[in-house]
């Protein structure tokens, strides 16, 4: 199991915690937590090696488009970049809802 860590400068903290997805064949789980710092830290646990550059590209684009400050934990089981993006968007939507998760 590899652990990848990325950090991005940001300005807008998310409102609430979020948890989406499941760890299973070809899927992933994302947990987001608010932080009071001007950055987003992402920690990825994955069993697929050699995709650090792809992870960075997907995350950079998502963070730049949304400018969110959060701690994001990803538990990956071979998800494609499209699934990663979808789960990130779902987690962001949940974090912006009025109901705390």
UniProtKB/TrEMBL annotation:
<dbReference type="GO" id="GO:0005737">
    <property type="term" value="C:cytoplasm"/>
</dbReference>
<feature type="modified residue" description="O-(phosphoribosyl dephospho-coenzyme A)serine">
    <location>
        <position position="25"/>
    </location>
</feature>
<keyword id="KW-0597">Phosphoprotein</keyword>
<dbReference type="InterPro" id="IPR009662">
    <property type="entry name" value="Malonate_deCO2ase_dsu"/>
</dbReference>
<dbReference type="Pfam" id="PF06857">
    <property type="entry name" value="ACP"/>
</dbReference>
<keyword id="KW-0963">Cytoplasm</keyword>
<protein>
    <recommendedName>
        <fullName>Malonate decarboxylase acyl carrier protein</fullName>
    </recommendedName>
</protein>
<dbReference type="InterPro" id="IPR023439">
    <property type="entry name" value="Mal_deCO2ase/Cit_lyase_ACP"/>
</dbReference>
């Amino acid at each position: 199991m590899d652990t990848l860590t990325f950090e991005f400068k940001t300005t807008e903290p998310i409102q609430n915690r979020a948890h989406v997805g499941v760890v299973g064949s070809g899927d992933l789980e994302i947990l987001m937590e608010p932080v009071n710092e001007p950055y987003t830290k992402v920690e990825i646990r994955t069993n697929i090696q050699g995709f650090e550059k792809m992870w960075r590209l997907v995350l950079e684009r998502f963070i730049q488009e949304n400018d969110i400050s959060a701690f994001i934990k990803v538990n990956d089981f071979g998800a494609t970049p499209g699934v990663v993006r979808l789960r990130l968007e779902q987690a962001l939507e949940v974090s912006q809802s009025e109901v705390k998760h």
